[in-house]
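User: Predict the full complex structure for these chains.
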Amino acid sequence: MATLWFILVAFMLTMYVLLDGFDLGAGIIHLIAARTDQERRLILRAIGPVWDGNEVWIIAAGGTLFFTFPVLYASSFSGFYLPLCIVLWLLMWRGVSIELRSRVPSPVWASFWDGMFFIGSTLLAIFYGAALANVIRGVPLDEHGVFFEPLWTDFNPFSKTPGILDWYTILIGLMAASTLTMHGAAYIARKTDGVLNARARRILRISWPITILLTVVSTIATFAVQPQIYASFNARPWGAIFPLVAFVGLLGVGHFAFRNRDLAAFFSSCAFIAGMLASSAFGLYPDVLPAVNPAHSLTIDNASGSPYGLTVGLVWWLIGILLAVIYFVFTYRLFWGKVTAKGEYGGY
Amino acid sequence: MDLSTILSRVQFAFTVGYHYIFPQITMGLAFLIVLLKTLYLIKKDERYNISARFWAKIFATSFVLGVVTGIPMEFQFGTNWARFSAYAGDIIAQTLAMEGAFAFFLESAFLGVFLFGEKVFGQRVHWLAAVMVWLGTWASGAFIVASNAWMQHPVGYTIAGNRLHISNYWEVLLNPWIFPQYLHTMSGAVITGAFIMAGLGAYYLLARSHVDYGRIFVTLGVIVGLIASVIQLYPSGDLEGQQVAKYQPAKLAAFEGLFHTEQGAGIVILGQPNTATGQLDNPLIVPKVLSFLTYRRWEAVVKGLDAFPPNQRPDSIELLYYSYHIMVGLGTFFIPIMGVACLLWLWKRRLFTTRWMLWILMLATPFPIIANTAGWFTTELGRQPWIIYGLLPTAQGSSANLSAGNVLFTLLGFAGMYLLLGLLYVVLSVTEALKGPESGEGEEAEGAEEGGLPGLATGTVAEG
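Assistant: Here is the predicted structure of the two-chain assembly.
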């Protein structure tokens, strides 16, 4: 049961990264892809009706993590106290910047929020990557399953007292930013036409090789920092399917990007991200939070909730997620297609 | 209690108190928007539809603030209250996670349809979207109240070593504490929405601008406001009082500033509790009423704070006492305000021209928010010294690995950010309110002729 919940929580987090990932990517490319006020409004309209729902996935994933792995929730959220609060602030500012940008008819006002939207999106992408890297690298858990990480110490991932930021986690942060730039560019290319579409495609084609380079470097670094990953794939070779999906997805992004097939490029990017995240989760299992001293690691067994709680939770969770998927299909169908200056729906 | 825990308490109280300004507005307005939209479909009077669209704009701004200030709430259980989360997460997080699965997805999806889909889908679907948004906000409230009710009155658990396990899911969901608290919280939210609507309507009538809409807002506001204010006192407030008396007698004693056990205890109208001397300074007391309200007998014995050992008493008696009296005092005023306004309305609609009453309605606008905030302070401070009543003391629920310096850092960060957010919210809402319901409607007609919708080119902006 705990294994099933490990998969389901990983699924929810992946959904979050896939969906809010293109919102973040849109924010990263916002200033370059869109130059005029009207173009910037179009980018916001492309994500306007959906970004709020996309962000619900992280709230829902957080809640699900809380009741399925209460010990992990308590340990990781308090241990990652500072970066988590900074992420919350960034999420808040970024959300506000999307909503308030067009509320006051002043170019200065709009420019300010455009800047905030860019900064918030970029830093969030880097922080998410660094967060994942921290979980992969491991944290200094004590025998009670408690730790506290400062923002940085000596920037060495092999340190006994690592910080949130070291050269490895920053590397993964940059890789995340590059990946979401690619992801967001594919989404914006798909949702727009004309000059916006052309610029988004160019960004997509530039970010693709950069992402490949960073992926290769990151993968090598990951095997060096966390040997457990290699051991997991060795013990269960069928798991190679996940990196394979990521590999095919990444090839697909380039393949379709240079043939101007935006939607296919976007879905390839989804496959790449999902494959990478699934590979990480597969590599960690059965750990949920590895410790610097492996004896103190949190695993699916010592961090999960009670069997009864996990069972009843599964019943309502399935109903809730089924409903959520129905809403999402409905909303995305409703707002399917490209946004244009003479849009079919209001807003922004 | 160490400094880090105290700062964590201050941070949680500040962030949740600030957050709750917005949900009470959205839960109240969502209900009123459904009424406006329904009135439009029944009466076919375009003004009701324009009113609904106007309040949807105010709703949307409040909703955004509610969402962004709500994100930190769930996460703070883990960041600042790790020992509590590890101890009780198996139970408390069920209801918290259900909020995400059942309320947030619903709200966010249908809010998009409600704000962006009126033209595309037509009036019936638009009405349905309004109803779904309303249900979503109220479902959200239900799960949060269920979580809080469990902390007030834990049920359906077994103790497994140093952690709690859920033993009966339905017992947790049907906790008897939920119903009175939910009714009280929701009618409190409706009061907030009704006072805002009536207050803005009163302003329009006083300023002689948007008079048609002023009348609609005042009418709907005072009728709904009166009903909700009465429900707030009876039965919901009364039921909550009975429950507190039965299960949390120390909380009741602190509410009332009752330091000593008394037969035929009186109710305190005014007075300042003096915890050093154990008495009430400058008291104004109506004899025997507290005994009657609590036990329905004038001579009943009510336990005072002296009946409980010091470590079982709430730890901020003064603030608790004032929170309770502000909540009850303001709540008591809401009934005559709305009652007199309703009578004037019934009396040949004289309400629309009675300027002193309109002034009162306009100036009363912020007070329900104060009363609701004081209400949450009352229930939460009254639960102390427990984070889970009778099971886990607050001092043992915080994150042991946080230094006071780190907590103060984030507390200051939240304070600065929320100050800015508050300024933005007030400026934008007031601007929107002063522009009035008809702003953007003319441009809408223009856009409709072109086959498009309002927005972009004209600079009017919908939100979502």
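Chain B touches chain A through 77 residues (CB under 8 Å).
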